Amino acid sequence: MFKWLDFSSMKKEAGILLKKIAIVLDNINSPVDRFSGGQQRSIEVGRAIYWGGRIIVFDEPCNSLGVEQQQKVIASIKRFRDEFNISIIIISHNLRNVFEVADKIIVLRNGKKVAERIKTQTTENEIVSLITGVAY
Predict the structure, then answer these.
(1) Looking at the domain covering 7-101, what would its CATH class be?
(2) What are 56's strand-pairing partners?
(3) Strand, helix or coil at 56?
(4) Alpha-carbon gap, residue 95 to 122, rounded angstroms
(5) Taking the model in full, what pTM does it have?
(6) Is the model's pLDDT at 70 over the cut of 90?
(7) Cβ distance 124 to 99 under 8 Å?
(8) Domain ranges of the chain
(9) What integer pLDDT is reported at residue 1 of this predicted model?
(10) Sign of CA dihedral 15, 83, 24, 64
């Protein structure tokens, strides 16, 4: 037997979660695809947190976002990491974003791990060199 969806409880839970993760939406009843890219990504993280996710993987989280939205997404990722004590894995070519969020950087080239660096012990130039295979 199927249980009917309790939309009022779902809306209440969503409101509590959105407040907890500091996301402000004009209309909680709007479909997610009506929100900005940054809001959509924050909602995705909120879902993972709600369901008990301890590791969240972002694949190019700031791809196709404007500078302001990128800053908001990165700020949200850092806040989620710190406030909810979760691990974040970011797959990105945007080294500024990587250096702003990461503690450790792993470089892959042609599908193989070529290096692992602690962020505070490397530079963007070294990481670019490792990515391209060209000495700097």
Answers:
(1) alpha beta
(2) 88
(3) strand
(4) 12
(5) 0.73
(6) no
(7) yes
(8) 7-101, 103-136
(9) 62
(10) negative
